[in-house]
Write a structure and sequence with these properties.
Helices cover about 70% and strands about 0% of the residues. By secondary structure, it is mainly α. α7 (about 165-185) packs parallel to α9 (about 215-235). The chain is globular, with a radius of gyration of 34 Å.
Amino acid sequence: MFKFINPSIIFIFLYSITGAIPYFESADKVHTQMLYLSIINLAGIYYIFNHFEGKSSEIINQFLKRKPIFIFFLFFLWSLITIFPSINKQESLIQATFYFQQLISFISILIFLDYNKKNLNQIFKIIIVGLTVIEVSTTLIPYISDIINTGQSVYRSLLYRGITGSLNILAFSLCIKLPILSYYLHKSKNLKWFFYTLIVVALFVIFSITKTRGALIFILLSYPFLFIFHGYFLNKYHNNKIRLSFFKSFIVVLSPLILSLLLSNLAINIYEPNSQTIQDRVVDSASDDYSTNSRLRYYKGAIESILENPLFGIGTGNWELVGTKKDWKDIEGYTVPYHVHNDYLEIMAENGILGGILYFFVIFYIVFKLINNLIRKIKSNNDFFFDLVIILSISAYLFDALLNFPSARPLMQINLFILLSFSMVYLGQDIKTIKWKFINNHRQYILFIILLLPLSCYSSLRIFKSSIEQKIILQYYNTGKTDIDKYFLDNIELNYPSLSTTSVPLKAFKAYFYLKNNYLEESIKLFNESTSLNPYVYFSEGWRSYAHYVSGQIDSARYYAQIAYDKIPNNLVHFGHLAYALVGEKDSIALKELYQKHEKKMQEHTDIYLLGMSQIIDQDTEGFALDDIVFETTGDKFQMIGYYSLKVGYDNTIEAAKLHLLGEYAFNEKDFNTALEYFNKASSLNPYEIPYRENLANTYSQLDKNEKAIEIINDIEKEGPLTNKARYTRALSYLSLNNFSEACKDFKILQNNSYIPDSLYINFCSN
């Protein structure tokens, strides 16, 4: 079986396992995979020059002139041109370098497959089957492990990503392979059970583990099509009767689908009873949910961008910047629209309409040739089923590009290039060669490629190194830690790449940690420098405001905070910075206006507002600050300080809190008379803090002054629902007074709330 193995085949397999390359401590798996591809490309081209010796340049040029490769080469050159109008030229250069790596991967895979064309089908089969086995097994192992250890699976757990790094990538990677596996099931004589099982398992992974809606829709659309054409193929090519043809097609195509659907629904019902069913996920695709609405906004923004910049676009690799500008009203935090979730629109938005046409021409040209070959075979009564499944496999990529961004995912791109390269070798002379005179001199193109190869490898190495640093930086930032090593911070990569994986400039992150460690002047300088790198995320302006606030420059603090808030109002940090600046100016009117006009209020906005107002107004006797405020305590001490300070004054709030702590200590020491005194004073100073009064009632109950305890609890109940603790205190007080009927009313509610055992209710209230 492995007699045909040679170095060129090893390279093919090395390309095919790109998706299996792990993170290696990088912030994004893509960065590791890009470095891996650049190394394989460098080694692959070296092998071609070494193996073919004097003919290597001619061979590379021969394949470079094949129409799909040449058009992709033109697309790469065009992406270099789009660097000039881009906002962030470093990010454009990084993206163009990635396209170059894809180009070299495409050429190398094509050359290696063509060199092994005698064993083409066998190599292709091993790749498709092998990758499918790896992808499903690395997903099923943690899935089954969770079921064995906990008795249930976790809805769309990241642990189930397998080698792919994403459930969505996993789903569409399997979708690409499923039509081809159906062909192998159709053709197989001795391993039908193996291919049938592999298809069922792959579909099960998509249906019950990834639950990727786009993949579900593609399968539900493509499988009926595959069933009809397979039945037609059996009838026409094998001369079977129509009923027999479609019965056999049902066995090969539909029965694995139906079986996997049944198994998936069963698994979901047993191991994920509260999660969405397959039907729910499909229906959600058309419903008014967050994901659908987000995509529609991104599509609208991309179309606007294409119309505004139809020729050169906004610059390759710059969508995450312009996308932020387009989606500013709906951005929350610093979660920006990194991708359009539609490669057709994103590539045209970044590279202009011509760039989009060049990129997708490569794919559609080969699909067109495959369709022509399929029609030709149908007319001549030849076996056309293989052409059909290859078309469907490429269609899976094209469908993914309609909903996601496979062009940014090395695993999906390698899947595509293997399919396209195989198709080009398979179609042979049907794939035309460019015969323009100006490209006959191959030396200049080969020299260009040889020059860029080590540069692209160096580029990938710097990006990978930066990605490792970014992982550390993001871990510190996301956990609120600021004690980062200054030597490490001073030596991180800031210019290439200039943006983090979150699109926030790396200089801005460095400035943030400088700010948190009191290097104020240095931080302000870095914030100023980082603004141009991504002028639409407003991280720098927000934190620069805080830097000026700490420095006592309140006017500057308000200026930059206002810019950040106006541009991205749904970022809580921006709201907080502006509120702090207004507090610094003692501008209660502007602070109230800010709060009232803010559209998407959360409890955190109320907390910030109350705390800010409490620092301007000691006690809101006129009801100015608390007008229309609905107070719902979350237990946050700053929230409570803000609200209670406005109600009773800051000094009374703090004094009441101290007295209450003393009361709790005395109560725990069984000194109930002292506790009563402290709780009484605390609740008098701050009657709005319900726990103070609850503890006062409980202390009265301990001193056998049950009527007073009941009176306090009844007063609390007039203001709102009682806590279980307060109700329990009242029930015990009624019980001490032998008022069983009233006590049992409270006990019944407490029993329903599972606050007391059933036995307690039965002992006192069974009669």
